[in-house]
Amino acid sequence: MPDENKKNIKIEENINNVIGGRKLKINKKLFIFFLFLIIIIIFSGLIYFIFLNKISKNIIKENKNNSIENSILETSKTEEVKTQINSFISGQESIGMGMDKDNDGLFDQQEKQYGTDIDKYDTDADGLSDYQELIIYQTDPKNPDTDADEISDGDEVENKTNPKGEGDMDTDGDGLSDEEEKKYGTNIRKKDTNDDGVNDFEAIQKGIDAISTDTDKDGLRNYAEIKLGTDPLIPDTDGDGYNDGDEVRNGYNPKGEGKLK
Fold first, then answer.
1. How far apart are CA 189 and CA 177, in angstroms?
2. By the 8 A CB rule, do 214 and 248 touch?
3. In the predicted model, is pLDDT for residue 227 greater than 70?
């Protein structure tokens, strides 16, 4: 009997070992299956993400292209509107101020204001166009001899004499003849070439530079020096070691001691 029992126990152990081995094999297969399934899911997810990303980029690109096309279209429309507006303005100008029938440099509307002939380049036939008489020489465009010296304005200009009175021609009426202005380098059509408040004739008479606004480079314009009574030719009028401009800016008297009154 004992031998029989041992035999039965051994058989049970063998059966258990077989069952345990099968369970182990089954567990390994299940593990491999689930691992493979997880890999497939991850791989599928990656493919899906790449696909979505590509579609998203295409959509963005398409929207961007549409935006650019819309922008170009809007710009085109804007340019078209601008062209229409400019065309309208040009049309209005040709009807009104923009028309110069006789090509003398003055618009017809201006000629009507000045009383000159819109059909004549030179209304008084003195050899100067209406524009030259009114804008450049300030002579009378309806009188061939503005200064009544029996020499036409055109001849005086040609001979470099003054069509508005005696002496040489002084186009800007600053007291310097055009020839003198050319000598000093000033503008024959501007009374105050450098816009410093002192006309060219006065500047030349006082020895001031008619081209530079600050002859002595002291920081004060020529006109300011004349008004203050300082010397526009000397940077330090009172000789105290401080130039006129610095003294004025700091509230001191540039002509002597004390504060500027």
1. 11
2. no
3. yes
| Distance from C-alpha of 31 to C-alpha of 74, rounded to nearest angstrom | 64
Task: Kindly tell me if the per-residue pLDDT of 72 is higher than 50.
Answer: no
Give per-residue pLDDT as tens, 1-51.
455 555 555 555 555 554 454 554 556 666 677 777 788 888 777 787 777
Predicted confidence band of residue 261 (pLDDT cuts 50, 70, 90):
low
- The pTM assigned to this predicted structure is 0.39
Report whether 139 contacts 153 (CB < 8 A).
yes
Please give the full DSSP string across 109-138, using - where no structure is assigned: HHHHHHT--TT-SSTT-SSS-HHIIIIIS-
Q: In whole angstroms, what is the distance from residue 97 CA to residue 107 CA?
A: 6
pLDDT > 70: what percent of the chain?
69
Tokens of 204: 């030349």
How many CB atoms lie under 10 A from the CB of residue 201?
A: 21
Mean pLDDT of all residues in 174-201: 86
Q: Distance between CA atoms of 216 and 222, rounded to whole angstroms?
A: 9
* Strand, helix or coil for residue 244: helix
Measured between alpha carbons, how far is 75 from 81 in angstroms, rounded to an integer? 10
Which tokens go with 228? 């203050």
Q: Which of 137, 130, 138 is nearest to 111 (CA)?
A: 130
Q: What share of the chain is helix, strand, coil (3-state, %, to 5)?
A: 55, 0, 45
Residue 229, exposed/middle/buried by CB under 10 A (0-12, 13-18, 19+)? exposed
* The two structure tokens encoding residue 125: 């036939």
